[in-house]
Amino acid sequence: MLLWLIRHGETAWNADQRFQGWSDIALNERGRDQARLLGERLQNVPPFDAVYVSDRLRALETAQIIVGDSASLMLEPRLREINFGKFEGLTMAEIRDRYPQEAAAWQADNHGNPHDGETLDAVAQRVGAFLDELRAQSAPEKRTLIVAHGGTLGIL
């Protein structure tokens, strides 16, 4: 199987360096431009056999702009970014200010869960289960596009 992995375009929270996680944030204009440019670059690539997309708006918008009507999009919640819990919407400076002990614990061990969200191990399990299913149902020549998030794609 040939996998194409694409991270969503920029959002206002990306520009502000805020943790987005499961928050459903739309692309900003720069993010839409990024997706349009990528769509143009992919015009000469043979069509994808399958397009899987995180169910968060920023990934969905990116995929819609990239592939347009050329493919059916399959929303896949297991491709969501890590859930940052009470850290969602905050910058690292705000986290350190509001939750100094939790921030220190998280920086010491990012596999922990001081934010009451998900652990990296939990994300790896859900993303791994998706990938296992994808492998089981895919032929070696199948061209698959995945549009998701930086953390998710890093784990993939």
What would you say this structure looks like, in words?
The radius of gyration is 17 Å and the shape is flat. It contains 7 helices and 4 strands, in the order βααβαβαααβα. It has a 4-stranded parallel β-sheet. With 156 residues, the chain is of the alpha/beta class.
Decide which structural class fits the backbone: alpha/beta
- Helix-residue proportion: 40-55%
Question: What does the radius of gyration come to?
Answer: 17 Å
Strand order of the largest sheet: 1-4-2-3
The total of beta strands comes to: 4
Tell me, what's the shape? flat
Number of helices: 7
> Low-confidence segments, ≥5 residues, pLDDT <50?
none
Biggest β-sheet strands, sense, barrel: 4 strands, parallel
Strand content: 5-15%
Strand-and-helix sequence, N→C? EHHEHEHHHEH
Span of the ends, CA to CA: 14 Å
Mean pLDDT: 94
Task: Spell out the blueprint of helices and strands.
Elements: E1 2-7, H1 12-15, H2 29-41, E2 50-53, H3 57-67, E3 73-75, H4 92-98, H5 100-108, H6 120-137, E4 143-148, H7 150-155
Parallel strand pairs: 1-4, 2-3, 2-4
Helix pairs in contact: 2-3, 4-5
Keywords:
156 residues, alpha/beta, 4-stranded parallel β-sheet, 4 strands
Describe, in short, the structure shown.
The chain is of the alpha/beta class. It has helices at residues 12-15, 29-41, 57-67, 92-98, 100-108, 120-137, 150-155, and strands spanning 2-7, 50-53, 73-75, 143-148. Strand 2, helix 3 and strand 3 (73-75) form a beta-alpha-beta unit.
